[in-house]
Design a protein that fits this description.
Distance between the termini: 56 Å
Strand content: under 5%
Order of helices and strands: HHHHHHHH
Number of helices: 8
Shape: flat
Radius of gyration: 21 Å
């Protein structure tokens, strides 16, 4: 077996293990928390009082306008200078959550606004309250529209978690870096890491297509 192939075989499990242990959990946790935050921010921007709207607009502007890498550095490396120390994995979760929250809030806000006003009027005409109309009529329609962009955000997050390596989270890319530092074979190892990321992304893309078809079928049949 060629040396490069032997190296790839030996390093595959350590990198895959790091991906399953840190990359995937970090992605899932940050996306769920970020999506929840984004939903609350979207509602605040659409229906909240003016002071709250100004605050969440500032939050969205700040986190969409600055690099994710800089945000991670600020949380992990800069906050200790003011007495706030956060360990690597929670710092990564916080950073990715705040970033995803800002981006997903715009997606959710846009999809809620895309639902025709006549849907609100129809809901109110049959005696529904604002909350009932939102939950039963508006959000189900908005969810169908939001699936493709939110799915793309999730897939992008899988790849973006490689940035967590700069704050010492032992995820997949950091595992590749550590092996490369010992073997002096960065090209082989980084290509292998890229292929594993590609594998994860491909699986998620297939699931995304199935989910979109499911919602499209429901829309056509009226289920």
């Amino acid at each position: 077996m060629p040396d490069w192939l032997n190296l790839a075989a030996e390093s595959f499990w350590p990198m895959l293990h790091a991906g399953l242990t840190f990359t995937i959990p970090l992605t899932l946790l940050a996306f769920v928390l970020g999506l929840s935050l984004g939903f609350l921010v979207a509602l605040a921007r659409l229906y909240g009082p003016k002071p709250l709207q100004y605050f969440v607009r500032f939050y969205v502007w700040l986190f969409r306008g600055t690099p994710l890498l800089v945000q991670l550095f600020l949380i992990f490396y800069a906050l200790p200078s003011v007495g706030i120390t956060i360990s690597a994995f929670p710092a990564a979760v916080i950073g990715f959550t705040l970033n995803i929250g800002a981006y997903s809030s715009e997606i959710i806000r846009a999809t809620i606004k895309s639902v025709p006003v006549s849907q609100w009027e129809a809901a109110h005409s049959i005696g529904m309250s604002w909350r009932q109309a939102l939950v039963r009529i508006i959000l189900p329609q908005a969810a169908r529209i939001a699936v493709p962009p939110l799915s793309n955000t999730f897939i992008s997050l899988v790849k973006d978690t490689s940035l967590a390596s700069v704050i010492t989270v032992p995820e997949m890319f950091l595992a590749a870096q550590r092996i490369a530092a010992v073997t002096y074979q960065p090209l082989i190892l980084y290509i292998e890491a890229a292929l594993i990321y590609l594998f994860f992304s491909t699986i998620l893309s297939v699931l995304q297509n199935k989910l979109e078809k499911h919602f499209s079928r429901e829309t056509v049949t009226g289920v």
